[in-house]
Specification:
alpha+beta, 6 helices
Length: 210
């Protein structure tokens, strides 16, 4: 799609394909989100506690909002994570003033049935490959609720370093520490995996940086 070339962007790994979720796949996205374990700390999105139809509408509106509000100055790219053409999660990557700062932040969710198979690590590694090798990022940041051990383990595997914490109000209303994590390019180079490819970036590179 010439007018919105992000639809042609894909990141592939040995097991996964990451790409923008199309409108005809929104029902599948909502169904996947319903298969997230509701245990404390597993998922932190504000929509996690909503009932239908607000639950599904919130997810779809978020996808549309990231497109409508996109600018080079501030962008957020939620990528669907597909295993054998099955949509099993979302991997976000975003930035403010990336052209000058060369910093990105990430967030994600994965359906509970797919947990424990290394997919969370592989999908994060995919967007880090996109950030560092594709866009030339210098730093990647993430955060995790202190009870979200799975997310912390993913960060540790990929070489992130602790960068302090702050207490915030999470979507479920609990006040808890939010752990800041940071990965710089040299640490990424030391831990990077192989078998990752980026497709379609040349057609949309100008959307990410001036």
């Amino acid at each position: 799609m010439d007018a919105w070339p992000l639809f042609d962007l894909r990141i592939t790994t040995p097991r996964l394909e990451l790409r923008v979720v199309r409108d005809h796949e929104m029902d599948a996205l909502v169904d996947s989100a319903r298969r997230i374990d509701g245990a404390p700390g597993v998922f932190l999105g504000d929509w996690a506690g909503l009932a239908d139809p607000a639950f599904g509408r919130s997810i779809v509106q978020y996808q549309w909002r990231t497109r409508a509000e996109w600018s080079v100055a501030e962008w957020n790219l939620p990528l669907g994570v597909f295993v054998d053409d099955q949509l099993v999660g979302i991997q976000d990557i975003g930035a403010k003033d990336f052209s000058r700062l060369r910093e990105v932040s990430t967030g994600s969710w994965l359906t509970t049935p797919m947990a424990g198979q290394g997919i969370g690590t592989e999908m994060r590694a995919a967007v880090l490959h996109f950030a560092f090798d594709g866009l030339g990022a210098l730093v990647a940041r993430s955060s995790a609720r202190d009870s979200n051990i799975a997310s912390q383990r993913v960060s540790q595997k990929l070489g992130y370093r602790s960068n302090g914490s702050t207490r915030i109000v999470f979507g479920d209303g609990e006040i808890a520490p939010d752990l800041a994590l940071e990965l710089d390019r040299s640490d990424w180079d030391a831990t990077r995996a192989t078998g990752f490819s980026i497709h379609g970036l040349d057609g949309c590179r100008d959307l990410f940086m001036a």
